[in-house]
Specification:
Shape: globular
Number of strands: 5
Largest sheet: 5 strands, antiparallel
Number of helices: 16
Order of helices and strands: EHHHHHHHHHHHHHHHEEHEE
Number of domains: 1
Length: 346
């Protein structure tokens, strides 16, 4: 049966998206529902997660005023829906963190809500000479040497893509004359999450608190989420990227294959919903609620999904169908149907 994304979000259980649902006990409202704004939702989630004091000034933003907040909140819930409906047999993200929280909502919170934090930073940088290498970017963002993400081992990540980060960053500087917001955001996030953890652990020890968990083991999860953000904008099927690296000794395309859910669950999920977000596709409409009420999801069986425009909707289905070509870097089958797309996940 077709159900609108709006209705599906309304019916999402707290434990499917809020990793601290047992402590919040329903007091934490979803974005778009009951008048909760996307900005307020993101800020409140950061507060619940102990991230409210993280300094974000080097990216040119501040808490409570987030770039692309409606898009971010939209794909946060869309990703939770897709994960729980399409991948019920997944064993990796169904696990728990060292602190006992459900792994999926914890990692998805870190990955999704932060993924576009460097978006404005990308477009506002004019002095590219001061940022034309990863080393200079780390310096500009004041990332500590011991917190440099590219020197870390990262689990559940496409290793070839992770190793290509520096080369792709150079491509963006040379060919597009801009930094990459995914790379900048991922490197920045890992450093600030680690700093925040250190600070919170010191505060916990000083107050002799027993119920707060800020152990070093969190940094494994921080690295996975940050690596996902750092690689989510690397579109390696772009003909311009292929032309740039053709014949080069350092060819980032070597060893790259389509991103699969099995190998890189978070990146696959983020790439999927980031591409198919209705609020991004139909941003000319000013009502988020109208858009979410006019896009429907159907899950005929595990690993399959239909996303389509409601019948007699003011939204043009072709705008949704045109996104099929942007999914060609993910390991899935996308077929155009009457009012949208039929997806089969491999």
């Amino acid at each position: 049966m077709e159900e609108s994304i709006y209705d599906l979000i309304s019916n999402l259980k707290d434990e499917e998206w809020d990793y601290r649902h047992k402590e919040n006990r329903g007091s934490f409202q979803k974005a778009f529902i009951d008048g909760q704004s996307a900005n307020s939702f993101i800020e409140e989630y950061f507060g619940h997660a102990g991230k409210e004091g993280m300094p974000l000034e080097k990216l040119g933003i501040e808490m409570g005023n987030f770039p692309k907040s409606e898009h971010t909140a939209s794909i946060f819930f869309l990703g939770a829906l897709v994960y729980h409906k399409c991948f019920p047999d997944d064993t990796y993200l169904k696990g728990k963190t060292y602190s006992g929280y459900e792994l999926f909502p914890f990692l998805w919170f870190l990955t999704c809500l932060f993924h576009d934090f460097a978006n404005d930073f990308e477009y506002k940088q004019k002095d590219l000479e001061s940022l034309d290498t990863i080393e200079k970017l780390n310096g500009f963002l004041e990332i500590k040497k011991e917190n440099q993400l590219l020197n870390k081992s990262v689990k559940q990540t496409n290793l070839a893509l992770f190793k290509a980060i520096s080369l792709y960053y150079q491509y963006r500087i040379d060919s597009m004359k801009k930094v990459d917001h995914g790379i900048a955001g991922g490197l920045f996030l890992y450093d600030r999450l680690v700093r925040n953890r250190n600070k919170k652990e010191d505060e916990k020890n000083a107050k002799n608190e027993k119920n707060a968990f800020w152990d070093f083991s969190l940094e494994v999860d921080y690295a996975e989420a940050s690596a996902t953000i750092a690689t989510h904008n690397i579109y390696f099927n772009d003909p311009k990227v292929k032309a740039y690296f053709k014949g080069k000794k350092d060819n980032m395309l070597k060893g790259l294959a389509k991103i699969s859910f099995k190998e890189s669950s978070l990146l696959f999920l983020l790439g999927l919903v980031d591409t198919l977000d209705p609020l991004k596709i139909y941003q000319c409409f000013k009502s988020d609620k109208l858009i979410l009420q006019n896009i429907c999801l159907t899950f005929p069986e595990d690993g399959k999904m239909l996303i389509q425009v409601r019948e007699n909707s003011p939204l043009n289905p072709q705008c949704l169908k045109d996104k099929i070509t942007d999914l060609d870097w993910l390991d899935l089958k996308a077929t155009e149907i009457d009012r949208g797309i039929y997806l089969t996940f491999n």
